[in-house]
Design goal:
Layout lengths: L1 H8 L3 H17 L1 H11 L1 H21 L3 H15 L2 H12 L5 H18 L2 H10 L1 H22 L4 H4 L15 H9 L2 H33 L3 H8 L1 H20 L3 H20 L5 H15 L5 H7 L6 H30 L4 E2 L2 E2 L3 H7 L1 H16 L11 H5 L1
Antiparallel strand pairs: 1-2
Helix pairs in contact: 2-5, 2-18, 3-11, 3-18, 4-5, 4-6, 4-9, 6-7, 6-18, 7-14, 8-9, 8-13, 11-18, 12-13, 12-14, 12-15, 12-16, 12-17, 12-18, 12-20, 14-16, 15-16, 15-20, 17-18, 18-19
Length: 397
């Protein structure tokens, strides 16, 4: 929708980057509080209400007469979507054995990223056929239906399903939500692990999620649906690799080694994209797929972060890592947009700014920088061998 939104709202790359990144600002900023509140409210209630809000946000966006209302719609979608991943992992933790958590984190990513694939090529075709407003309206209807379905189908635990202990209140919790929030934020190891997740998700959120389509269209002269299809290969790679990455980590009983390898390859692949020789479309498509496949190794970061933190803050820790994962999009999307405007030579087409392939490749250097930070972070982690670390307080409980 990049060109359509620029034309509809009469904006350039920097403003559009901010519009897209607003989703990530609110999504990322709410992760730790949501993790802390999950036990109190329950995944079923939070998911239903959040999808209701996301549906209303999509409706507002589809009807927006100007950029300001579009901002509001995007914010509502970001707030509404913020619950999804953390709540799903909370359900996974309650319904499945703990030694499958990394694998299930990957399965959750796979399920979610199917929408990333559909959000590229297929959606581009729908936008061309019906218009971006009609497509966003349809998305709002889908989200509202999903909200109702979650409320009717989802249960927080097997006990609740069996109606033996429906929403049983926990007795006198020792730690408040605010205490858990603060303790998670003070855990330096979790921040280091989150930096790895951020570096692995950055290419997908910045390239696959926004700037890859106009870049591939400019670089190879592709029509928008075809360019979107190639950009979606990053989501395909990430989706296919996420369950595999979690399974490999669980099977090897290693967290650090797979993440260190993935972080190193992340730097190599992005460097090739930015500095490599001119490549054929097939070679570039392969690189895009490999970037997604390699980045999916971060599925194990959620299990890794839980293992280096006390059990009573696992919800907060999961939220913190997910905040940093999505934070990559909040940081990189507008940075790339600003960089493009700085490099822009004033060329336009049908009232839309035109950026050359070389401009895009230069702007993608910000992705390479974050990938480098991720490699350093991976080297600084301490292996857990997939075992929960002991904490004096945990033993007391």
């Amino acid at each position: 929708m990049v060109a359509d939104l620029m034309r509809s709202f009469d904006v350039g790359a920097a403003v559009l980057g901010n519009l897209s990144a607003l989703y990530f600002y609110f999504y990322a900023g709410l992760q730790v509080p949501i993790g802390s509140l999950m036990d109190k409210w329950g995944a079923r209630t939070m998911l239903s209400l959040s999808m209701l809000l996301a549906g209303l946000g999509s409706l507002v966006f589809s009807l927006a007469p100007g950029i300001e209302i579009a901002y509001l719609g995007r914010v509502l979608v970001g707030i509404g979507s913020a619950v999804a991943f953390v709540a799903t992992l909370a359900l996974a933790a309650r319904w499945f054995p703990t030694n499958r958590f990394a694998f299930l984190s990957g399965v959750t990513m796979f399920s979610g990223l199917i929408a990333g694939v559909a959000g590229q090529g297929p959606t581009a075709s729908l936008v061309l056929a019906y218009g971006w407003r009609e497509v966003m309206f349809a998305a709002s209807v889908f989200a509202l239906c999903l909200s109702a379905t979650i409320w009717l189908v989802v249960r927080n635990s097997p006990n609740e399903l069996a109606m033996r202990q429906p929403r049983k209140a926990k007795s006198a919790p020792k730690h408040s939500v605010l205490q858990n929030f603060r303790e998670a934020l003070r855990n330096r190891e979790v921040w280091t692990i989150g930096m790895i997740a951020m570096a692995c998700s950055g290419p997908m959120l910045a390239f696959g999620g926004l700037w890859g389509v106009p870049y591939l269209s400019m670089r190879y002269g592709l029509p928008r649906p075809e360019a979107a299809g190639y950009a979606s290969l990053m989501f395909v790679g990430f989706a296919c690799g996420a369950p595999l990455g979690g399974w490999i980590s669980d099977t090897l009983q290693r967290r650090k080694l797979p993440l260190l390898f993935a972080s190193a390859m992340n730097v190599v692949f992005i460097a090739v994209l930015c500095f490599g020789p001119d490549m054929s479309l097939t070679a570039t498509a392969t690189l895009v797929f490999l970037l997604g496949l390699n980045g999916s190794a971060m599925a194990s970061t959620y299990a890794f972060a839980k293992e280096v933190s006390p059990p009573h803050i696992h919800g907060s820790v999961t939220g913190l890592v997910n905040m940093m994962t999505v934070g990559a999009g909040a940081i990189l999307q507008p940075i790339i947009g600003v960089h493009l405007e700085w490099l822009w030579d004033g060329t336009t087409k049908d009232g839309v700014p035109v950026y050359s392939a070389a401009m895009y490749e230069t702007a993608f250097l910000s992705i390479l920088l974050i990938a480098g930070f991720g490699l350093v972070a991976a080297a600084l982690t301490t292996e857990t061998h997939c075992r929960q670390r002991s904490f004096p307080e945990s033993k007391a409980q």
